[in-house]
Specification:
- This protein has eight helices and two strands; from the N terminus they run H-H-H-H-H-H-E-E-H-H.
- It is mainly alpha-helical.
- The termini are far apart.
Length: about 190
């Protein structure tokens, strides 16, 4: 549609962009927001690529929506004594698993591990030594296959787990030695 003077009106104008950003702030996904403001997703992609400031505005609008959910999750987790709302254990778990995964990782599924290839039999993780051996194997495999460079966080996580298992092994060894020494003392 042409305006007076021969210039074409842009379909994704400032008004629609602001409406789009407001929808993102409310938690709409990008595709949903495109439909609501009446633009094609390709138009949105063109604008995000052409206009760096708009791309930044989109990122901040999505962060605002995420922050609202984080705030709601936190409120559910801690409850509210004044309003007699009890803390929600599941919300506490989700919060801690995501905010402090190194301390609060869900360890319920650690019992058994099976490689995706299906060729290697189940491995039972009953001791720190078992965990250390699995980590060593996985790290060695990643380096041999060249995937360690593609997944540095996974390698770092495995190495951290290896170190923790190594430390637990040493503690187990010390505890056994202490128990032996105590038994020897009791005999005397």
């Amino acid at each position: 549609m042409a305006k007076a003077g021969g210039t074409r009106r842009e379909k994704f104008d400032a008004e629609r962009k602001e409406a789009f950003l407001e929808l993102l702030r409310q938690g709409y996904r990008r595709g949903q927001a495109c439909k609501k403001v009446g633009i094609n997703p390709w138009t949105f992609n063109d604008h995000i690529n052409k206009y760096p400031k708009f791309k930044t505005d989109v990122m901040y609008a999505e962060m605002e929506a995420n922050e609202m959910v984080e705030t709601a999750l936190y409120s559910a987790a801690v409850g509210n004594a004044k309003k007699k709302i009890q803390p929600n254990v599941t919300a506490c778990q989700v919060w801690l698993y995501n905010r402090c995964p190194e301390v609060w990782a869900d360890k319920r599924n650690i019992g058994r591990a099976r490689p995706k290839d299906g060729k290697t039999p189940d491995v039972s993780l009953k001791s720190p030594e078992d965990i250390r051996k699995v980590c060593e194997t996985l790290i060695a495999t990643m380096f041999q296959e060249g995937t360690a460079v593609d997944a540095p966080n996974q390698v770092a996580g495995l190495m951290k787990t290896w170190m923790e298992a190594f430390g637990l092994e040493k503690i187990e060894t010390l505890e056994k030695k202490i128990a032996e020494i105590e038994k020897e003392r009791e005999k005397k």
